[in-house]
Automatic annotation (TrEMBL):
UniProt-recorded Gene Ontology molecular function terms: ADP-heptose-lipopolysaccharide heptosyltransferase activity
Keyword terms of this UniProt record: Glycosyltransferase, Transferase
InterPro entries in alphabetical order: Glyco_trans_9, LPS_LOS_Heptosyltrfase
Single GO cellular component term: cytosol
Keyword Glycosyltransferase: yes
GO terms, biological process: lipopolysaccharide core region biosynthetic process
Source organism (scientific name): Halomonas korlensis
Protein name: ADP-heptose:LPS heptosyltransferase
Coiled coil: none
Length: 363
């Protein structure tokens, strides 16, 4: 078994490269693992390899020291990335989602300790392999990631610290208040009212409720709340989803609900920080839902009846009493959200919202 000797550990803090170079939600569920590494030793230098899309979030992560943008496929891109990995002289490579390209690059770069899940033939490039069988969905994704981080720490000779707890993005209360004031001023919103953010888009990756289901969900929640507990519905949208969000907004306004469309943000980092103004976030299993989880904001997530996409597997990483999850019955098709019980979900979300805010009885 390849490990780092105590002597080498004492010479300088180890330099680690952590790879999660796919979608935003996947990367947000890596933050608990990154927090694990820093909990063992804050001096560990942690770099992350991410695509350009998630790089702004990586730069906000308090557990990351350096960000490397993955240039993607292609001979020149591979050559450039290999040169970068060699020049940074990493002591360890922790790949949370293994691909042959990254495994090969880590091996060619001469990184001495290379750890990844024992899946597919990409594992041949790693000298530390951890069997997890994630497709069985027996644990949350972020827990699988933490286990890999702990295995890396063990291989480096560290005693394992207690696992960090939420929030994994510990944004200050002052920052959250500033965002609430800013959004209130931008849209003339009552800051004393509950604000429920709803991200009805899917980002092209997650199965989500239909616009009709989201409208019915919000109307049902609103009707179940006492007047002083009824929220302001803040409808967020990703690129290309603005027209759908506007159509949903117009439907809510026509039904007498109080709703708003926040202005476009400067970038993903600005959008992500703005979510901290929410009292509750409702979405499919998409990037915004998992950003909220890292912030420890209460969440209500919607998931398909698919073994590899279960509410347990893609659970948000906020506190247990801050999350709700809903999915259709097991007999539904993997892409079929029509059988999800919207009324039951609305009932549970309304109860959570009351517990989080006024604690007044439901009407």
């Amino acid at each position: 078994m390849a490990t780092m000797s105590d002597a080498s550990m004492n010479e300088k803090p180890p330099r680690l490269l952590v790879v999660r170079n796919d979608k935003l939600g996947d990367f947000m569920l890596a933050w608990p693992a990154l927090a694990c590494l820093k909990a063992a030793d804050a001096a560990i230098h942690v770099s992350v390899l991410v695509p350009s899309y998630t790089a702004p979030m990586a730069r906000l992560c308090p557990w990351v020291d350096a960000v490397i943008v993955d240039p993607g496929e292609g001979r020149k891109a591979r050559r450039d990335l290999l040169a970068r990995l060699r020049s940074d002289r990493f002591d360890g490579l922790l790949t949370l989602f293994s691909t042959p390209r990254i495994g090969w690059l880590g091996w060619r770069a001469g990184i001495p300790l290379r750890l990844a899940p024992a899946t597919k033939w990409a594992q041949l490039f790693y000298n530390q392999r951890i069997t997890q069988r994630r497709s069985r969905s027996e644990k949350p994704e972020y827990v699988y990631n933490m286990e890999l981080a702990e295995a890396m720490l063990g291989a480096m000779g560290y005693d394992l610290p207690a696992r960090p707890t939420p929030p994994y993005w510990p944004l200050s209360e002052e920052s959250r208040k500033a965002w609430r004031i800013r959004l209130g001023e931008e849209r003339g919103l009552d800051t004393a009212r509950p604000w429920v953010f709803v991200h009805a888009g899917s980002g092209g990756s997650a199965v989500n409720l239909s616009a009709e289901q989201y409208a019915r969900l919000m109307m049902t929640i609103d009707a179940r709340l006492a007047p002083s507990s009824r929220p302001i519905w803040v409808l967020t949208a990703g690129p290309g989803e603005e027209s759908s969000a506007r159509a949903l907004y117009e439907r809510l306004i026509a039904a007498g609900l109080e709703a708003t469309l926040p202005p476009p943000r400067k970038g993903l980092d600005d959008f992500a920080a703005s979510l901290s103004a929410a009292d509750l976030i409702i979405a499919g299993s998409t990037g915004p839902l998992h950003i909220a989880g890292c912030l420890d904001i209460p969440t209500a997530g919607f998931y398909p009846a698919k073994r590899s996409s279960t509410p347990l597997r893609w659970q948000t990483c906020n506190r247990a009493d801050h999350r709700l999850a809903f999915c259709p019955p097991p007999t539904a098709g993997e892409q079929d959200m029509s059988r999800l019980d919207v009324e039951s979900a609305a009932r549970n979300i309304a109860s959570l919202l009351v517990s989080l805010t006024s604690r007044e009885p439901l009407s």
